[in-house]
Amino acid sequence: MSRIRPRTLAVGTAVLAAALSACSGGGKGGDGGRGAADLKAEQPPKISVNLQGQAARAGQPVTVTLAEGKLAQVTATAKDEDGKGVPLAGKMSADGRTWTSERVAAPGTSYDITAKTDGGGSAKAAFATAAAEKVNKLTLVPGKNSTVGIGQPLSIVFDHPVKNKAAVEKALKVTTSNNTEGSWGWMQDWSGKDRVDWRPKEYWKSGTKVTLDAKLDGVDSGQDGGWFVRDYTTNLTIGKNQLVKVDLDGHRLKLVRDGQVVKDVPMSAGTPGGEKASWRGKMVLMSKEGTINMRSETVGLGDAYDKMVDYSMRMTWSGMYAHAAPWNAGYFGNANRSSGCVGMSDADAGWIYGEVQVGDPMEVTGSEAKGTQALNNGYGNWNLSWADWQAKSALR
């Protein structure tokens, strides 16, 4: 639904579509010869709408109920800022007495309703919802028309707290070209904000087309969160079937494509036994950042380094990268002596950088680690079993 703004409306629960014509002249009883049944048929149908007035509360479906008889059709429209009606779909009850909208009423929106009965009667009603006092927004990853690796989850970070997690999750629909099985999981993002990710049961299949429709307009986040006042959508394609394997103990990095090793390079990772050690786990390549300035104080390591680093590939929010590290060349393939990142030669890092995709799994294994990557430290979703991941859904 497009964004709606309220306008002044005539409000009422039922308005006759066309005024009855007064008749005069002869005829029995002054009715022009028509019987009582004919007069009864001309009475306007009596309908009631659950939302009324100019400040109705949003967040609930619109229901139209007929006092007698059956509804043949109900048309509900929301007015956009140009006065154009946007249809609100709905369903009729089995007895034909009640119509209920499929979407909830959105904040700050005006609605017109026309109800027609199977007897030919017609009635109209109108109402407007109160504007949202607080609006919640979100950030979607990946962006529209992205091509990503087989490990990339759909990830949503909210501006404000989400207390009504089940209601929000119900509004999030993922559609895939091959019926991929997956589930939403809630967590607190590294930034401290509420976040929900959708990951498949297993890594995506290459070529899968994915669409997310977040039909959130009119959904209440709950206490301190505010209302959503628009829908969101994104779509993506799953790219090459490949992943990166990092063996901390063997000091090797391998790019595996379609099950075959296409590049095997020596590397040196984080110095074991302290904070400089690398994380292990099934990570996801978050971004390809090229040449960046890396400073040790930003990751709590004092003034150990301040370098411009080439071919930087982010693995975690906490600052673990794979990148070129020519100053550490003496340790490539034989020892881990970095400050936490996976370092390679300029040539090897450049080749890997050119081949990897954002969203590629980066599976780091080995004993020389300081622990397993946290769920929210980047995309640690794959470190949970399928059952444990499903348990993080608000609908379980």
The class by helix and strand makeup works out as: mainly beta
Q: How does CATH name the architecture of the largest domain?
A: Beta Barrel
Q: Order of strands in the sheet with the most strands?
A: 20-19-18-26-21-27
Rg from Cα: 30 Å
Overall tally of structural domains: 3
Percentage of residues in DSSP E strands: 35-45%
Largest sheet: number of strands, sense, barrel closure: 6 strands, mixed
* Total count of helical runs of at least 4 residues: 4
Structure explained in plain terms:
There is one protein chain. This protein has 396 residues and is mainly beta. It folds into 3 domains: 12-128, Immunoglobulin-like, CATH 2.60.40; 138-233, Immunoglobulin-like; 242-379, L,D-transpeptidase catalytic domain-like, CATH 2.40.440. It is built from 4 helices and 27 strands. The protein has helices at 36-41, 165-170, 346-355, 386-390, and strands at residues 12-16, 47-49, 61-66, 71-79, 85-87, 90-92, 98-104, 110-117, 122-128, 138-141, 146-148, 154-158, 172-176, 182-188, 194-200, 209-214, 232-238, 242-247, 252-257, 260-266, 278-284, 287-295, 306-314, 321-324, 342-344, 361-365, 369-372. The strands form 6 sheets. Strands 20-19-18-26-21-27 form a 6-stranded mixed sheet, with no helix packed on it. It has a 5-stranded antiparallel sheet with strand order 1-9-8-4-5, with no helix packed on it. A hairpin with a 2-residue loop joins strand 19 and strand 20. It starts with 11 loop residues before the first strand and ends in a 6-residue tail after the last helix.
